Amino acid sequence: MSSQAVAALLGSQTPRIALVPRAKRSDGEDAAFLASRYGLTPDPWQAAILESWLGLRQDGRFAAQRCGLAVPRQNGKNAVIEIRELFGMIVLGEKILHTAHEVKTARKAFLRLCSFFENPRRYPELADLVRDVRKTNGQEAIILTNGGSVEFVARSKGSGRGFTVDILVLDEAQELSDEAQEALLPTTSSAPLGNPQWIYTGTPPGPKAVGEVFTRLRADGVAGKDRRLSWHEWSLVGVIDLDDKANVAATNPAIGRRLNWDTPNAERAAMSDEGFARERLGVWDEDGANAVIPAAQWADLLDPKSRIESRHAFALDVSPNQSSAAIAVAGLRSDGLSHVEVTGSGDVVDHRPGVEWVVPRLREMADRHLNFRVNIPAGSAAESLVPAITKAGVGVNVVKGAEVPAACGLFYTMAMSAPSTLRHVGQRELGSALSGASQVDVGDGSWKWTRRKSSTDITPLYAATTALWAAHQRKPAQNVW
Fold first, then answer.
1. Residue 465: which residues within 8 A CB-CB, separation 6 or more?
2. What's the pLDDT band for 3 if we cut at 50, 70, 90?
3. Mean pLDDT across the stretch 469-480?
4. d(CA 130, CA 148)
5. CATH number of 17-233
6. Distance between CA atoms of 80 and 50, rounded to whole angstroms?
7. What is the C-alpha separation between 218 and 231, in angstroms, rounded?
């Protein structure tokens, strides 16, 4: 690509992932207009995020209680936060707590916001709104006469003590621990306006970062099932050409506008491949080669026309808190290769929230398939449904605990062998589960999938793994479908 062509490339204003809760209306446009009056005009991508964050339901509450933004550095995420805070303070009268991982980051955010309120010659109406500005290090705050305020703190074990706010901003969320979050979330429990919101912004956590909270939030955003989560992510997945300038443009909305091409060019020369992929291209470890089954390998097993011809086996898995369940099927194709997929009917895929739907769905499947039975991995919360399933007249087989690691090993071997003997139809549910799935050693070289360390909901993966195991244990004569 010529230097002129590279210079002409502009950053994509559309994220790879955009989860936007349904809203009746939004104050996003008003927030963008207000900020533009003070020289802070949002780019299209920033305006779209504000539209989502400030979306309102019929009852006037925020459509999104949790808001997440993952975008590479120096693209303007701080401007999105500033616009949100300005509108919240001035128009809504919100009390806001702005937190960051480091003191210097919180201090910089405070000084940027102060520049709007401490310039009476340029912005007299904003200066007139100020009741107090506290500049004591560690106690920085801007307090307005209408009751709105923003206080700034660096996160610590007790950083949330003594605050009662409407909005909690968690910047540098790639360095947000469970302990820090648990200290901060109660600050909004008695939100003065009764309409709390949590805002998380950051980049993919590095190998030494304490990023479990942001990683879980991201997993919810990828899954797309939380109706009160707003998630926007600029990133790449799969096999990536780190030197392709189009990839930089796809993941950096400010490139060619507010971000000069000299920056990523210099970073590419100075950074490791892993660091550049993470910091500039938004690549998450869960989506790369560090996954148990790499995304590129899983993509190679895709066959949209694949179908099972014999040895059908069905399996059910349920998450520990019964927040979701999945039913999968596996079997053999006519060419002898194995096939796995999450079952479904029409546009409805059997990976859904809750468990109320499970027994009726299994009963429906039993009515359609002769000798139907469902396999359940031992130790799964699905075992709690066995009495209800059997009462509904559906056969159940609980795969023994000792067989679960063998089932996981079979799934891995069939997916990773050369040539591989497993195929799938490209369902997002399985791909998402695999992208964040982790394994735990159970001794003697065996392992199994682990929910505790996984960053995604792996119920579809556990169901598919169990179904594949069952399909290879049953004799052909026992399968009449």
1. 315, 377, 407, 408, 410, 411, 449
2. low
3. 63
4. 10
5. 3.40.50.300
6. 7
7. 7
Q: Yes or no: is domain 295-478 CATH 3.30.420.240?
A: yes
Provide CATH 3.40.50.300 ranges for the chain.
17-233
Is the full-model pTM beyond 0.90?
Answer: no
Going by C-alpha positions, the residue among 433, 452, 18, 24 that lies closest to residue 212 is: 452
**Per-residue pLDDT reduced to its tens digit, 193-226:** 999 999 999 999 988 888 889 988 998 888 788 8
Which residue ranges does the chain devote to CATH 3.30.420.240?
A: 295-478
Rounded Cα distance between 433 and 435, Å, is: 6
pLDDT tens profile 391-422: 999 999 999 988 999 999 999 999 999 889 99
Report the half-sphere exposure of 365 (CA within 13 A, side-chain side). 25
Residue 9: both structure tokens together: 């490339």
What is the pLDDT averaged over residues 83-93? 98
Residues 278 and 287: their CA atoms lie apart, in Å, by 11
Give the least confident one: 39-53, 264-278, 280-294, 342-356: 280-294
Q: Is the dihedral of CA 405, 406, 411, 417 positive or negative?
A: positive
CB neighbours (10 Å) of residue 122? Answer: 12
CA-nearest of 196, 139, 197, 199 to 173 is 199
**Distance of alpha carbon 442 from alpha carbon 241, whole angstroms:** 37
